[in-house]
Structure formats: structure tokens, C-alpha cells
Please model this.
Amino acid sequence: MSNEPGQTLVPRPTLSKKDYMSDQIIRWCPGCGDYAILAQAQTVFAELQIPREELVIVSGIGCSSRFPYYVSSYGFHTIHGRAPTIATGLKVSRPELSVWVVTGDGDSLSIGGNHTAHMLRRNVDLQVLLINNRIYGLTKGQYSPTSEEGKKTKSTPFGSVDHPMMPLAFALGCDASFVARSVDIFTVQQRDVLKAAYHHRGTSFVEIYQNCNIFNDGAWDQLVDKQVREERCLFLENGKPMVFAGGTKGIKLNGLRPTVVTLGEQPDGRTITADDCLVHDETDPFLGAILARMDYPEFPVPMGVIHRKERPTFDGQMNAQMEAVVAQKGPGNLQGLVTGRETWKVG
Amino acid sequence: MKPLQSVDDVVIRFAGDSGDGMQVTGSQFTNTTALAGNDLSTFPDFPAEIRAPAGTLAGVSGFQIRFSSSDIFTPGDAPEVLFAMNPAALKANIADLKKGGMLVVNQEKFTQKDFEKAGLTTNPLDDGTVDEYRVVKVDMARMTKEAIEGLGLGTKEVDRTKNFFALGMAYWLYNRDTSSTEAWIQTKFKQPFVEANLRAMRAGHAFAETVELFETRFEVPKANLPPGTYRNILGNQALSIGLVVGAQKAGVPLFLGSYPITPASDILHQLSGYKQYGVTTFQAEDEIAAIGAAIGASFGGSMGICTTSGPGMALKAEAIGLAVMTELPLVIIDVQRGGPSTGLPTKTEQSDLMQAMYGRNGEAPVAVIAASSPTDCFEVAVEAIRAATTHMCPVILLTDGYLANGSEPWKVPNVDEIPDFKVNFRTEAEGFKAYLRDAQTLSRPWVKPGTPGLEHRIGGIEKAEGTGNVSYDPKNHELMVHLRAEKIARIEVPDLEVIGDPGELLLIGWGSTAGAIRSGVEMARSRGYKVAYTHMRWMNPMPKNMASVLRSFRKVLVPEMNMGQLARILRAETLVDCISVSKVQGQAFRVGEIVDVIVKHSGGRATSVPERNMRTEA
Model:
């Protein structure tokens, strides 16, 4: 915003969640987990007061990829798996925009797996909401790359023999600079994660467990139901010991392997307290690798920011390089370019 | 001093192993020839393998240059001088050498071992193979070694300088000034290689001067080109510069998304060095990411470009459809090569025309433009950006390996004289709709994200005319299909220009065949045949006078380096019974082949009954 001398700076009106709602009718199935994610995102946009004209939502194909139509901002509903490519071209050429990629498990890990990998390693400064429901919804119920083995679906009537991938471990393998997890119904925690993602410079990769109540209802219930979530989720806080189940259990390291311990007096008489547990350090990629592999039922599933460590962004470096060249060589002389170095005259 | 004989038109070819530096030799000879004021045309021909086994046929790399005192349009059918650095190069190229032509061989490489590598059982220098040529045997290895003695170079390094010995001989033979190459050597190499290469070249020059092997040297007078400043330029270079100029004329930054692929990679290389011209280059993880990023950049207000070849075009098809649907400007450059699949990566072909015209799902019309010569690549690049930005649509620009790596003199244009076509981004919120159309061009507004009050969503799902909202309405879909087609049809395209004799026989071509067709028609006319030619630049939309031009001739021939793709399209569009003249050898048409086909269809006419089947002439 320029504030010219002699002009009165008109303060922008404060934007509310409602201001980020578009006029389009939302066409997700009633009860779909996407409603909750959309609502949290719109709430966060308002909390952060992101100017609507500077907000761009880019999506691929799938149920979740209808997201841009429902946000009153700039939006691009692209083609299957390719949202990271379009977002990369946009962000590199327009680094001042706030670019959010919304994608699903099929879109980002199956057809678009390649682009997801390269976006992450490049560290393009954007937010990625990977909405993971472990099923293909829009094509009406085939298994996805995160579906569990043995899953019976329309395309696997005798059970799937595909082994599922671990999205966050994959992201860390691509040297992602920000990796976090949330759940559609964890509204408050989800908003915290989205805000952290926004403030991180680089690719902020957020996996959000989502319930497809039509084709994979209850896929995450055993982890996220009110009755069990304290026991089966590990809510991470940076610098704090990893304890869960209402403070009764914790994670300790045994050699290179994490183990679940019950706090308090042990059968051998020793006492384990929270202070004996592993302390979360978001900046430690080795710890991140351990957390990203922890899965139910052997472990509680880590929630929150698993890894966060800033490194130069792709768009930042691309633009810095251009500025450096212009500073060194000066703006290009177009006629000089056309004429070249070796010429001869006729006539 | 040996006699200097003046000649008008010369074709020479350097051939050797991929590691022999033949491309360097050829391009240095080309630059010097250009600076001497000749018109010229070049044809580099190299294998896809970077270093095939030394001495084998698979590893032969060649560079042909034709230079002339008059206007020329092809690199020539047959060389009169062939430099063969080994038996494999001799075997692969000797059939092309004109009878009575000069064959210069690197003697040390003509041993039993080398014959075996080349798949020869006898020595081609004394088994009759070269009886009809003037053979000049030169012990390049020994003389190069002697020339650079004392510089402390190893055998391999000595061996690598002998191409400069050959170049020195060629410079003497055609009375060339060596100073441009000397300057180039100074900038390109470090010591002691500067000294070694200079000495090798001077040794070659001195050798040719002193020995009795060459009776004469030749001089090709300056060509009578229109006045102006000239430079020599390759097709890919001209294209790269055209893209920069086009984007500046449109007043938008240039964004190239590209994945390396032969023979298009040089455009990526070149543009990556142009940051001071506001050019962003993005080497993507694959062909799809390359076009995706270009589309993203266009959405953001840049001129999105991607460069590729046939296999990459196939991968980009879906994304091109997205650009059609979202009506964003985009230029997709296809430097065609032999196909299908991996095909012939380093050889030329025109077999992607159908792919460019129709290779997408749904009714997805795309503007298609084709360059006809290395220098024409500049003009079509500017023209493609003009069409893409003024009509808000993707444009496919077709060139091919022959244009990409071929070079010719270019009269340098004054960039200020190229008209601007500045983009007006919409900023006015009042009355804005994402798919509101310009009454004349039918283009929708281009809005940069970041513009307050114009927030909108676009995507690949069918759009409601006007609002751009998602629409599944049957009538709206039909309307949009027609509007997208009409938008392309409204791109202004100049009429076809016919040159030659009316009414009898017309040759119509597109792309890189222009030079051969023009030269062939001119040669046939000089022999009294009644024939005309015309050449297409815009493939879609077609020139408005297409049907009337074709119908005004008794017979229409369509020479193409494919199985008759344009012939098929012309038949469909005009109902004229065009005859396909097809060549699919990974090689350009020779002028002689064009003349032959003209002769066949002019004189040998047994009946005037039009042939009804799709015919193909070899």
C-alpha cells in the first residue's frame, strides 16, 4: 500500500470470515469433512486479514479441489495432479501473492506425486492443504495411494494389494521445510496449524485427515473420535516433552527407535516422568523423520507441526538472481540483443 | 600464389566422429563465411548418441554449408568438397559427394583397425569406392602433432586439435580470413589449448598453401543482399530473440517453463541467460510441469511460454486444453523431430502437424503458426505472442530440427520499427465479468491477481458465457464450443501469396520445406515448366483465400516431411484433390527431388481425369 504524501491513508475495512465466502453454492455431499476445512480456512484468512485480491487458491482435480470456487479470492481449478506446477509458475512470477494449494491424496500423491516432490524440494513459498481421506471420492470409491492394504473398493473387490504411502515421511524425504498434520474436525488445532503454515516462508505442507462419509466413512474414527483421540493422537508442542493420554503416557527414544512409555512408577521400581520423554524440536529433521513414521496402532499419531526449518525459497532465489543480474548488467538493450556481436554491412 | 578461381555457389561438408569437433569446425567456417558477405545456409547432422563408439557409422557427425554470391534457400543437395576424418565418415557421406568432387581424408585414420570399426572389409581409398573423386590424402595427425610440439599436450589432446587443421585447410581453399576464428579461440579456450588450436589451424592453412595437392583456390564473391546490417543466426537463436522482443512489445514479462528435449533445449539455454531482459526461465521436473508453470505465470500476468518437441507435446496435451478453456495467453513451441515415440531425436520431420491441430481431448481449437526458415523463426515468435495476447488463447508454434540448427544470414531488424501491441490488463471493477468478451476479437479480459475488486475463479470445467462460473448447461456448452472456435478463426491472417505460373501446377508447403520448394520451382521454371508455389505460415486459422487459390490450379502438390498431414487437412477443408509428396527419412527435401516431382506431374500427364484417392508420391 502506498501512502503518498498529502494523501489520507484510508484504512481497509476489517474482513470477516463471511467476506471470504463466494457466492457459489457449495456442492460437496452433506456431511463431507471438506465443509469443516473450508470453514477453518476462511476463518484463518480473516484472522490473518489476507487481502482478498492477494489470496490465490490453486487446486487440482477431486472433491477437495472444488475449494477455490467457494472462496471469495482469486482461484484456479486446474487439472489432475498439476496444481503445484501452476502454483509454482504463479508464485515465481508474482512472489507478493499468498498462494494456497488445495489437493487430495489421489491428486497430490498419485497422479501428481512427481510435482509434489519437486515443489517440496524447491521450497516454493506457498501453503499446501493435502486433504487425505484415503479414497477416491469424485470417481466414486476406488482405493487411493493412502488406502490401507486389503481395502475392498469398487476396483478392488478382493481387497487391495497396494501398500499405502506415508505422506509426511515422503514430504520430509523431499526435504520439505514445513510439515504438519491436522484433522478436519480438530477445528481449533487446525486453525493453529494453518496460521503456522501461513507464517512459514517456504512450502508449508499440511496433511489434513478428512472423512469421506459416502465412500470411506469413519476412515479415521479409530484415531480422532472424541473418546479415543487423547489416547491415540500425540499433540506436539515445540520445546515440550511428548506426552499424551492426558499426561499418562509419553514417547521415549530407545536407541534410534521411539517407544511408548507409561509415566509414573515402573515395574522395576524406577519412575518415568515427562522430563524423561523426548522433547519436540521442530527444527530437527532427524526427529521429524521419526515422528513422520509414527502411526497407529503402534504409536499415537503426531498432530501439529512435525518439522519447521526455514531455508531459502525457490521464488525468492529466482527473483534475487534476476535482480542481481540486472544490477550487474543493467537492463537489457533490446536492439543490442537483436544485433548480436558479429555483424557485417551490406550496401 | 596459386590461381584464384571465382565461383558462385559452393557446398562443402565436414564429417567425422562425434568427438572430432565437426560441429565446431562447421560453425566457425559458417561465421567466417557470413562475415565475408556470402549468402549461406547450413545443415548440421549429428547422431543422438553423445559419443557413440569411436570410428563407427553410428558416431558419424556432419556439418554441411552452402555459400553463394546470390540468394539461396537451402543448404544444397550435394557437396562438392567432403572432409572425411575417418573411414566411417567417408562411408556414410561418399554417396552424397558430387562426381568429380574433392574428398579430403585424414590419412592416419585409414588403417585396417579403422576399416573394421566402420564395417569395411577393404580400404575405400583403393578398392574403387573413390575412383570418381579427386582424393586428397593428408596426414593431419602427424602435421598437427609437429605444429604443437613443445606445448606439453598428451596424445588425446593433440588429437582434439586436428579439426582446426582441417578448418585451416578449408579457409585457405576458399580464401577466407581466419581472424574471426582466431578471436573465438582466444575467448573459448584456455592456454595451452589456445596456442595449440591456433597453431593447428595455421598449420592446416600453410599446408594447403604450400603442397601441390590443391591446384586452385576458390573465391565466392559477396552476395548481392539488400542493404543493411547482417548477422548469421540459427533458427533456435532467432526464435529465442523473437520471444524476448515479442514479450517486450506486449509489455509483459516473459516466463519460460521448459524440460530439456532435443532439438529444443537450446532455446532454454539461450533464454536462461537473458535475465536482464526480464526473462524468467524455469527448468521443470517434466513436460507437464513446464506447461503448468507457464500457464500459472500467464494467469499471473506474464507471457507464459514452453518449448518442447513431439514427445513433450504429447505430454502437454491436457494442459493445452486447460489454456483453451481458461482462455489464457500461452505459446507452445514444438521443434519437431522424427517420431513416433522417441523416434529420431536429432533428425528433422514435420509429423506433428496433426498433433498440433487436433491432438487434444474435446473440441479444443488452438492457433497454429509455422516458421519457414531459421530467420523466419524470429518473426513467427513475435507473431505468436501478438496473437496469444490479443486473442487470449494458446498458440502452437511449429519449427523443426532442420530450422532449429540451421543458420542463414539475417538482416537485423530495427526493433523500434516493430509495432507495439501492449496488453491492457483490466483493473476496472465496475461491470467486470471474467468471460466478458471483446466484440471484435472475442477475447476475455486479462486480470492480474492482486487487482482489488476483480477477484474471480477460473478452471477447466465448462464456463458460463459472461460470468465464467461453472456451468453444465447444454446450450451454454455448445455456445462456448463455438465461441472458442470462432475466437481462433478471427485471428487476422494474411492471404496466401502465389508465385509463378497460374492455372497449371501448384506446390503448397508449410514450415521448413519452403527453401527446397521455392528453389525447386524456380529451377523447373527456368527449364520451361509451368509451375507455381505458395507457402503457409498460419496453419490455423488458414488464409481466407486458401480454397480459391487451390481451385485455380489444375493440380496441387503438397510436399511434406510426413505421410501427407497437410494434404489431408487441405482436402478436408477445401475438397481440392491435393496430391501428397511425402518424404519421411529424417532429412529435408533436396531441390532435385522437388524438380523431379514437378517434371513428373507436368509432362508425364497421361490423363486429365482427377485422381480420387489419397495419393502419395515418394
Remarks:
- The first strand of chain B starts at residue 4 and ends at 6.
